[in-house]
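Journal club prep — side note

Before the paper discussion, L.F. wants everyone to see what a predicted structure for a comparable chain looks like in token form. Sequence:
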Amino acid sequence: MDPIEDRLAFAIEITGIAAQSALHLFHERDALDIERKGLQDWVSNADKSVEDQLRAALNDRYSEDAIIGEEHANTTGTSGYTWIIDPIDGTTNFVNGTPGWCVVLACVHSGQCVCSVICDPVSNELFSAMSGRGARLNGVLMKTSAARKLNEGTLGVGHSPRVPAKPTIDLLADLLQREGMFRRSGSGALDLAYVAAGRLIGYVEPHMNAWDCVAALMLIEEAGGVVEPFDMQSMLENGARVVTACDGVYDEVVTMVNDAYAVEK
């Protein structure tokens, strides 16, 4: 089997299993130990347990692959493949009993994401993609929205406490003046997956970490959407701005983002 195809099949298997473990903890969340890492940034023993589970499976199968995770120290590898784990994206939703969280796993090789999986066990949905093979939801190919105007759908808008609030407020004001609508679910990875599925027309956020977005950005590209170019190594080390949309509205979305964040066009 092709090494990437093999990794995707394994990623689908272990992410699905880890997501069921997370779902069990979600139903027993009153017993969780919850810590605050920063403003609107929480971690629980569920996050750590799920990441441990994924790391153990990856180490057992691909011991020479590197691993980057949100909750534990990165490990180096010799194979050229790097796994990126977000054990529970949307932890605030998770600890408060709100649907809208997911388990995320991506694999990077030669500076490109080559396969990715996002699983939302509450909705029983598993998103997956492999480079050049399209993106799928529960095994069925996905396509991004056919919208040509902002008022033909909803734009996902995230915000990071790492940046000032005003640019995001300016962006929302501009969007509403253009008769657009917005959504923020509390899980950037899941909102990005919804772009790939055609449920949202796009998604923007001033700063995201690699574990929040790399997997889903691949889904979007494989589903026919447009992603603002970024340097993978810089993303892995520092995170980056994320702008993505279906082809019909991408240029207008980029214009709005650049205007709101005072970036020269």
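L.F.'s comment for the group: Helices lie at 3-27, 45-61, 91-95, 166-177, 188-196, 210-222, 232-238, 250-260. Keep this in mind when we get to the figures.
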